[in-house]
Amino acid sequence: MALDPPFPSEFDQEAQGESGVDALGLQAIYERLADRILPAMTVRMSRPRFVTAIALGSSICADWGDDEVAKDGCTPPWMVFEWFVAESLVRCRKDLRDADGIPGRRKIEAALRQKRAISAASYLKTASIFGFTGIYKRLAIGVGVVTDDLVMDDAGCELVAAWEKDNDMVGFRDARTGAGAD
């Protein structure tokens, strides 16, 4: 017994082509489901390991106050930290599996080609949204790594402690012993 192929009913919307990424029209359903299961995640988050970088940045920048900025008069400490991390990842991109996933990669590559320092002028214009901190801050807050103002939270302390141990850097956070000592 052969089955007839499915056919659209009068209630089905007109198909807009077979080559779309959502051929079954499930996008609204999977987005609502994703928001319920993982509310802190977005589709822009392809490298959740940046949450570790945010935790480390929070630890490193903890000694600076909310009103302190870099010598340029506008850049907060966490952004300077992001510049260092992003530049280091771009510089070693040949060793990375997905170097295209580094936020600001093209801007950093252009600055390096021009032998310019990474700065507010050479990095992303809206880095607080499109830099890795901007992209992953929602997740870092959602899992308790940092607070809204990027201050280390309980899960952040645990994450940094695990990172220290995994990388043989015990003492990094408290800077009194081991790899973090002065």
How would you characterize this protein structure?
- The protein is mostly helical.
- The chain has a domain of 105 residues.
- The chain is 41% helix and 0% strand.
- The chain has seven helices and no strands.
- Helix 2 packs across helix 3, helix 2 crosses helix 6 and helix 2 packs across helix 7.
- It is elongated and about 75 Å long.
- The mean pLDDT is 85.
Based on CA inertia axes, which overall geometry fits? elongated
Tell me the number of strands: 0
Low-confidence stretches at least 5 residues in length (pLDDT < 50)? none
Alpha-carbon distance between the termini? 79 Å
Order of helices and strands: HHHHHHH
Q: What portion of residues is helical? A: 40-55%
How would you state the average pLDDT, rounded?
85
Structural class by helix and strand composition = mainly alpha
Biggest pleated sheet? none
Whole-angstrom Rg:
22 Å
Record keyword descriptors for this entry.
single chain, 182 residues, mainly alpha, 7 helices, 41% helix
Compact summary:
By secondary structure, the protein is mainly α. It is 41% helix and 0% strand. It has a domain of 105 residues.
Write the topology of this structure.
Blueprint (H helix, E strand, L loop, with lengths): L26 H11 L12 H11 L16 H15 L13 H9 L13 H4 L1 H11 L11 H13 L16
Helix pairs in contact: 2-3, 2-6, 2-7
